[in-house]
Design brief:
The chain is of the alpha/beta class and 465 residues long. The chain has 18 helices and 20 strands. Strand 12 and strand 13 form a beta hairpin. The protein starts with 9 loop residues before the first strand and ends with a helix. Bound molecules: flavin-adenine dinucleotide.
Length: 465
């Protein structure tokens, strides 16, 4: 193991989301005197929970899904000591109108990408022709050089590879929209293709789905002892109003100084906090200003009885509501027999103007269409959480504009919008934080990032044929 290299260095990290936490935890472990500033009274940023004033429930902003391929986010979880809070499933459940279910599950005896083949061939929501088109599409993805598809949309790739509209609606769209938070006709082709290469085809572990069994905020609380135990400082409720390469001024008027600063703010805040003179001489900041948002809607639903059965999650085929997650079993402890279900709509800009009542009705219609048990059930409560500024929209233009970790100014950038090769995800944020820590310590990418999952021999062969 390499000896700590950072003693004597002081660093201020602004922003306590996944990116800022990842950076701070690595720096603290290397002996850097790190101070993490977070404007809110809790950590986790967009991937966190809130106490609902209406009911007192602790609710997640939205269900956050990790996958087996999120190697850096999983490394962060290990460093925080929360790995055992993640609950894993290897299956993807597809539910059609009427309730018919198809399950994609890995076969134990087959290497990736053939591991899904038996259940894929048996799935009932696709016709024989649709399965053929999808299989050819996946084969083509394995062979695609992403660099050739950075300027086009995934919609153009689908068209160039003659993918039928029904397959786009049933499979390509729900997966890409959930992973990239943008419609297939707007998302950069390379970004979408990477989801399949890295998340489904190369390694059988990659597509495993992990969700937190605890409220999200509880994943990040242990970071406090991890960072402070290594000599770092975490200041919650500390809002930065200005930062440059060696100092940060807080809303209270206090100014902190350090050898280096790391900006781990959401991209829309960067221009407001980073000093104007620094922004002018570093073109990364004009690139950040070009990024735009895409929304996500999370809807908490409580039913008066069990509606999802044993299903931990389900994709609703061809419905506006893309994913359902079973958040709790029927709770009989308090006499209140409710099942908590969470619905997710990504790329949800058009939903943002709807009232909670309208959202509740639309989502309930989707749930009842695909889950027969929900038809008899009463919807006891609804809580819609609109995240208008959920993520950047990964269009081809945005992918070109994403800034690097370092630039002509000495401010180091971290955040899911930084150039990491990943869409806006917890994994992208963790990678950016680790890369920022490496930039502080002048270490290389190999030091910063966890080893990728090993591609199977079959996948490697497919890539070259
Ligand atoms: C509804 C929704 C669903 C999502 N679902 C998934 C999913 O299923 N899987 C997945 O991998 N990703 C998902 N994401 C994306 C994921 O949440 C983000 O990509 C990731 O959390 C971004 O982390 P970050 O650290 O870059 O930014 P942020 O989480 O935004 O962190 C930035 C931090 O800076 C703080 N801050 C802001 N201003 C100041 C200031 N002036 N001074 C000090 N601190 C400040 C903020 O409070 C925040 O804590 C989802 C996002 C949303 C919104």
């Amino acid at each position: 193991m390499t000896a700590p290299t950072g003693s004597g260095l002081s660093v201020i990290v602004v922003g306590g989301g996944v990116a800022g936490l990842s950076c701070a935890i690595r720096l603290a472990a290397e002996g850097v005197a790190v101070t993490l500033l977070e404007t809110r009274k809790k950590l986790g940023g967009r991937a966190t929970s809130f106490d609902d004033a209406r009911t007192g429930d602790r609710l997640d902003n939205c269900q956050h899904v990790a996958m087996g391929c999120c190697v850096n986010y999983l490394d962060l979880c290990a460093r925080m000591g929360v790995t055992d809070k993640l609950r894993w499933t290897t299956e993807i459940n597809w539910l059609e109108e009427g309730g018919r279910r198809s399950v994609w599950k890995p076969a134990a005896f087959l290497p990736a990408p053939a591991h899904f083949a038996p259940s894929f061939l048996a799935s009932r929501f696709l016709t024989v022709g649709e399965k053929g088109a999808l299989a050819l599409g996946m084969r083509e993805i394995a062979r695609t050089n992403l660099d050739e598809w950075r300027d086009q949309t995934f919609g153009e790739w689908l068209c160039a590879h003659e993918q039928p509209g029904s397959v786009i609606d049933k499979v390509w769209s729900p997966i890409v929209v959930s992973a990239c938070n943008l419609d297939v006709n707007r998302v950069c082709a390379a970004t979408a293709l990477y989801v399949f290469q890295g998340g489904f085809l190369g390694n059988r572990v990659a597509s495993e789905i992990g969700v937190s069994a605890a409220p999200l905020v509880e994943l990040y609380d242990p970071a406090i002892s991890a960072i402070e135990g290594a000599g770092g400082v975490i200041r919650l409720g500390a809002s930065a109003v200005r930062m440059d390469e060696t100092s940060v001024t807080l809303a209270s008027g206090e100014t902190l100084h350090a050898d280096r600063t790391v900006c781990a703010l959401p991209f829309e805040r960067v221009g407001r906090v980073v000093d104007a003179a620094v922004r002018q001489r570093d073109e990364r900041f004009s690139a950040v200003a070009k990024l735009e948002h895409s929304s996500i809607l999370g809807v908490h639903l409580w039913f008066d009885r069990a509606v999802m059965g044993e299903l931990p999650h389900a994709v609703l085929v061809g419905r506006g509501t893309q994913w359902l997650f079973r958040k709790s079993d029927v709770d009989e402890s308090s006499g209140a027999r409710t099942e908590h279900v969470h619905a997710v709509v990504s790329a949800a800009d058009e939903w943002m103007s709807f009232s909670e009542e309208v959202i509740g009705k639309r989502v309930l219609a989707d749930v009842r269409a695909c889950l027969p048990a929900a038809r008899e059930a009463e919807l006891v409560r609804v809580r819609a959480v609109k995240e208008k500024l959920a993520t950047f929209a990964p269009t081809p233009e945005a992918e070109r504009a994403r800034p690097e970790t370092t630039g002509t100014s000495r401010i180091i950038l971290a955040g899911d919008y930084v150039q990491t090769g990943w869409p806006a995800t917890m994994e992208g944020a963790a990678r950016s934080g680790y890369l920022a820590a490496a930039a502080v310590l002048e270490r290389d990418e190999e030091w910063a990032l966890s080893a990728e999952l090993r591609e199977s021999a079959l996948y490697r062969a497919l890539r070259v044929t």
